[in-house]
Amino acid sequence: MIAIRSEEEIALIKKAGKILSQTLKTLEKHARSGVETRQLDAIARDEILNRGGYPAFKGYRGFPGNICISVNEAVVHGIPSDRKLRDGDIVSLDVGVRFRDYYADAAITIGIGKISQAARDLMDVTRKALYIGIANAVKGNRVSDISCGVQQYVESNGFSVVRALVGHGIGQNVHEEPEVPNFGKPGTGPKLEAGMVIAIEPMVNAGTFDVEALDDGWTIVTKDRRLSAHFEHTIVIREKKAETLTG
Hints:
29% of the residues lie in helices and 25% in strands. It is α+β, with helices and mostly antiparallel strands.
């Protein structure tokens, strides 16, 4: 069952999204060479709590961190640790916020110091793919129209979309129906209706789309250990144009 949210519910998700957006901006200022990822996790926790929210990922299915911090070949679900960031790294910061029992989810990938042109291209394509997906998220389209738009753009630029992980509905839970893949044929899947709230999140690899889990049980990495990037927004379907709730 895909929920159609009331304007009151959307306003609460948008409030969670505002807290989230501010948190990501703060993290961008502090993410630099020599900083441990657990320090960024603590900064995110304090920022979210001080703004009246709660870190949605803390304890979710046993996840130990407040946010996910995934470095270089890590695609998603990286656990904050004593690992220090280094010049040339790319870092995905995935943040979830709960506000009055409603959730928002968003992610960005940033470069630390001077990064390679290949890494920059990967990040740029992934970011653009997200906005192509959002542009296709309009009333009357189907979920796969989002998916197809992302896949075609990514693959036309020589990269691959992760297939084992998908975007999702969001609202009263972090993950709800529908699943929102980043690949597929257009014109299939659930029809998009005004009031649906979904998280669109291209996860794009420099090499193969194959991924695997590390022994920590959480971190998902590229199977060939090449770079990966991740961008995400929570949006609501509107009559003519999707509204971003985490912008």
